[in-house]
Amino acid sequence: MPSIPKHAVLDVLSRPRLADLARVCGITQATRNKRDLILLLAALPDDAYVDLLGMLTTAELRAIARLHHLPELQDPAALARHIQLDAPLAEPEPGPTPPAPSEEPPAPTAADDDDDELPPNVMRFRRREPPATTRAQPRRGGDLGFEATLWQTADKLRSNMDAAEYKHVVLGLIFLKYISDAFDLLPEAARSDPEACRAARMFWVPPAARWPHISGADPLGKAIDDAMIALAAHNPDLEGVLPPTYQRPGLDGPRLAELVALIDRVGLADQQDRDILGRVYEYFLTRFASAEGKNGGQFYTPRSVVRLLVAMLAPTPGSSVYDPACGSGGMFVQSERFLVEHGGKHGDLKLYGQESNPTTWRLARMNLAIRGIAGDLGKGPADSFHHDQHPGLRADYVLANPPFNTKDWGAARLQDDPRWRFGVPPAQNANFAWVQHIVHHLAPRGFAGFVLANGAMTASTASEGEIRRAIVDADLIDCMVALPGQLFYSTQIPVSLWILANDRGDPRLRDRKGEVLMIDARDMGTMIDRIHRELRDEDIDRLAAIYHAWRGDPAPEGVAATGAPRPRYEDVPGLCRSVTRGEIFSMGGVLAPGRYIGPPAPPTPLRPFVDELADIDKSLRGHLARAAELDRELLDLLDHLSRRPRP
Predict the structure, then answer these.
(1) Which of 148, 209, 274, 462 is the most buried (most CB within 10 A)?
(2) Residue 486 zone, left/alpha/beta (φ > 0; ψ -120 to 50; rest)
(3) Is residue 321 scored above 60 in pLDDT?
(4) Is 104 part of any domain?
C-alpha cells in the first residue's frame, strides 16, 4: 500500500532545487521558504505531481529511496507507487532538532546493550542510523538550474530523432513562446495596434500565433505551422526565420504535444528575469552542440571562449561589432551582456553579422530576437567571401570563430580580391582568407579578436608563412593566446586567440608599436565532463587583466576616483611575456606563445628538506603507534566476543 505523503517525498531536495521545479511547474507565488515550496508542490494535482516526479534525477531518486527505506528506485513510476497521491494534504511535520554541539551524546539504553560490560579500552560499535535528510547533488559547471530539468525532459521526448533536426523543433517552439509572452506584457494600446507594437521594437503577434491558441489547438502541428506563417506575414523581419515544418511525418502528434506542454510551463510574464527564455535558449544551444559533436561547432562557440574574447576586447558604448561567421549569434549576445555589466545601456552597440548556413542563420535571428537585440545579419544566409553583405563596413570590433582549416572555399574565383592585402591565401586552407577579411573590415582604430587552429601560428606551407610574416611586419598583431585543448565540441585540438589592433599607437592606450604580448594559457580551465574543458571565471578575469595591463587600459572610473594606480604589467615565467617584432622575425615569424615564454619558474622550497623529513618521520611514527593501539583494542574485542581470556 502507498505509505509516503506527497510532501515527505520532496523534503530530500534543497531549497534552490525546489524553487527550480516550482518555476517549471508554473508556480508563481514568491516564497523563499523551503517548507512553503514543499507545500505548493505537494498541492499540485496528481497528474502534475507525477510529471514533477519525472523531472527528478537518478541521484535524487536514490536519495529519496534511502530516506524512506525503499528498494532501489530506477524510475519515477516506481516511486509513484509508494506515494499517497489521493490523500489530503497535511502540514509537514518539523524534522528532529539536531543536538547542540556542546551536548553529550545520549547514553545507551538497555535495548542497545547486552548484560556483559565491554573492556574499558574498547568502544562499542553501533549501527549508524540513516540521516534525516540527504544533500542534493551539486550542480555541474554548465547547469543553470531549471534549464537542466527542461533539457532532461525535452531530450527524453526526442526518441530516435536526430539532434540536428530536433534542435530546430525545440528552439522554434521556445521562440514562439517567448514572443507570445513578451507580447502579452505590452500595454493594451500597443497590442491592438501593430504599428505601435513595432515602434516599441517588439514583434506584433496575430491571434493565430499566440501561445494559448497554439497550446490548445488540434491538430497541433498545423496550428504551429500556421503560427509561423502568420508571424512572418505581419513581421517582415521574421521572413524566412521560422520555417513551417511541424507537420513532418517524423514528428508524431503525442510527442509534439508533450513538448509543447513542457515549454508551456516556463513563462516570461511571471519571472523577474526578463531573459529567462533567453537563458533556456542558450542552454539548449550548448546541449545540442554537445549532442551533435563535431557538427555542433558549426553553430556554437563555447561560452567561456566567447566570454574571454569579449572581455579582452571590451567593447565600448556606441561602437560597432562585426562577426563574419556569426553562427547562432553568441558573440553578439555576450557583447551586449558585457556592455550592460559595465554600466552601458542595452542596445547601445551596432551589430553586424553574416552566416552562410541557412538553418544556423535562422538560429542567430531567433537568438537575438529572443533577447530584444537588434542586429543586421544581412538579407539572408550568404558566404562572407563570395557575397559580402557588409562591403563598406569598417567595424570598431571584429569578433569571430571562423571554420578551422576550410578546404575548397572558392579561392580560384577571388584571386584578385582587394581584401588580400598581404597575399593570396592558399586554395587548400581558408585560415588566412578569414584573417585578411577581418583586417579588411577593421576601422582605423579597430580591434579584432578571433579563434584559429594552432597550425595557423606556425604553418609555412604554400603562402601561409609569407602572409603571417607580412601581417607581423604591418604591426597588426597585438596579442597571441594559446588555449587548452578540449574546449570545443567540434574538435579536441587546441586553438589560439589572435588579437589584432589597427592602430598600435592609439593615444587612448599605451604605445605598443613593435611589441607583441604572448600568453600561454594551455594549463588553464577545468574539465566539465570526460571530454570537454571549460575556462573558469578566474581564468577569464586573469587573462583579460594581463592583456589590459599590458596595453595600458585606463583604470575603471571607480578605481580612478580613489587615486589608486592602474595595474602594471610584468612578465610571468610560463604564462606571459612581451616580445619584440625583431624576436618574432628571428624565429621565422612563428607566433606560438610557447616558443617565446618558456617553462614556469621552478617552485622555491619553503623549508629545508631536512626539516621536512623530520616532520614526516615524526608523523609516521605517531601513526604507527596509534595503529598498534588499535590492533590491541581489536584483539581485546575479539577475545571478549569469543569469551576466551587472553594469555
Answers:
(1) 209
(2) left
(3) yes
(4) no
